[in-house]
Design a protein that fits this description.
Layout lengths: L1 H24 L6 H9 L2 H22 L9 H23 L3 H11 L16 H4 L1 H10 L3 H17 L18 H7 L4 H4 L9 H6 L24 H12 L17 H22 L8 H21 L3 H21 L5 H30 L3
Helix pairs in contact: 2-13, 3-7, 4-8, 5-12, 13-14, 13-16, 14-15, 15-16
């Protein structure tokens, strides 16, 4: 499973590395709570649906494939898949901006108000599900699952790179590939810019279908989506757009912030939670056909941890309570019941306990300070 773990670890290093550079150089004011939400937005639930996407692809390939590439040179197979995958993504992305059910998924990505690498991993829980019908065509034509996975990773890596805030214009590459300068336009808040530059890797799809925008305003008009500012709760942000789409007008407003938590505590919690996700991927990979009780329990706890971290970022006390339940429940299961005593798990468990103590100490200190304030 190292082929799955290494890209995720590299992604985390790059996200926090770029954020650190932007912060230290003053090129961008970093909202660390926003960065944490971005890497926490999809998290373990998104991984589950990615596994569902892979499972569907494998089933269609094994049962309905036309095997058109069985006798074709690998060079032509890979070239076709690179182009066909990106062509499918172009139309998937364009329809995300056109059809309300797909926009209800995609809007989470566009709600990010800061253009940096962390925005590249900000997604709805359901992002992977929307791509299934677009890419199953490749399975029917006979593109093997292994080729599909590698090409997917390559394209997603390019898209991740295209959210970075440090790369200038790339000269002649701008004519062929989607670059950060192209994709930055797509994330402008003004709708006339957001509805352009849909390509993932190759920019010529936009030029071919009339959605390319080369003109940028002299002053950046800001990023994000018009309307209510999003919360840091992935459960709320992944599902609220569907409630609004279904006509539930009186959706509960985001409650006021009750307290502030230091960015250090939030970042540490996110990294510990991601450490657990890496362990989950190492154990179970893409296999969801034989789900065990242990896998289900770990999945639910990690999902609860993701939601709790969002609540803490929003300054909600329920987030602290839920996080403490998760940090107590995980060691109880891992050590007390399952007897998982490998050094990796013990290290993450110890980190969670220390984090819970630090979080409680910080809250206790704030309560004491509030009590000492004159009435």
């Amino acid at each position: 499973m190292s082929d799955l773990l290494i890209p995720i670890i590299v992604m985390l290093v790059l996200v926090f590395g770029e954020a650190g550079i932007l912060h230290l150089t003053g090129r961008q004011k970093i909202d660390w709570h926003d960065v944490v939400f971005n890497i926490n937005s999809g998290h373990i639930v998104l991984w589950l649906f990615r596994c569902t996407e892979v499972l569907c692809y494998g089933l269609v390939f094994s049962r309905f494939s036309l095997h058109l590439f069985d006798s074709v040179s690998p060079v032509w197979l890979w070239l076709f898949t690179l182009l066909a995958w990106d062509f499918g993504f172009y139309w998937l992305h364009r329809l995300h901006h056109t059809l309300r059910p797909l926009w209800a998924v995609h809007v989470v990505h566009h709600q990010g108000e800061h253009f940096n690498l962390s925005l590249g991993v900000r997604n709805s829980w359901y992002s992977s599900l929307t791509g299934i019908p677009f890419f199953l065509v490749l399975a029917v034509l006979g593109v093997p699952l292994s080729v599909f996975l590698v090409v997917s990773v390559l394209h997603y890596s390019v898209q991740f790179f295209n959210h970075n805030a440090l790369t200038p214009k790339l000269g002649w590459l701008e004519y062929l590939f989607v670059t950060p300068s192209h994709h930055r336009v797509h994330h402008y808040k003004a709708r006339r810019f957001a509805d352009s530059n849909y390509g993932g890797t190759f920019i010529f799809w936009d030029k071919l279908f009339g959605t390319f925008c080369r003109v940028t305003p002299p002053v950046e008009p800001g990023y994000g989506v018009q309307g209510e500012r999003p919360s840091s709760n992935p459960l709320r942000e992944s599902n609220l757009p569907f409630l609004r789409m279904l006509g539930v007008r009186k959706t509960r407003a985001q409650p006021p912030r009750r307290f502030n938590v230091s960015a250090t505590i939030v970042i540490a919690g996110a990294l510990l939670l991601f450490g657990l996700v890496l362990g989950y991927i190492q154990l179970y990979g893409y296999d969801i056909e034989r789900v065990t009780t242990q896998q289900t329990a770990l999945f639910l706890l990690l999902s609860a941890g993701s939601i709790a971290l969002g609540g803490i970022s929003d300054g909600q006390r329920w987030g602290v309570v839920l996080w403490l339940l998760v940090t107590l429940g995980l060691p109880l299961l891992f050590i007390g019941i399952w007897d998982w005593r490998q050094p990796y798990w013990l290290g993450v468990m110890a980190g969670l306990v220390v984090h819970a103590i630090a979080l409680l100490a910080g809250q206790g200190r704030r309560v004491n300070e509030a009590q000492r304030e004159p009435v």
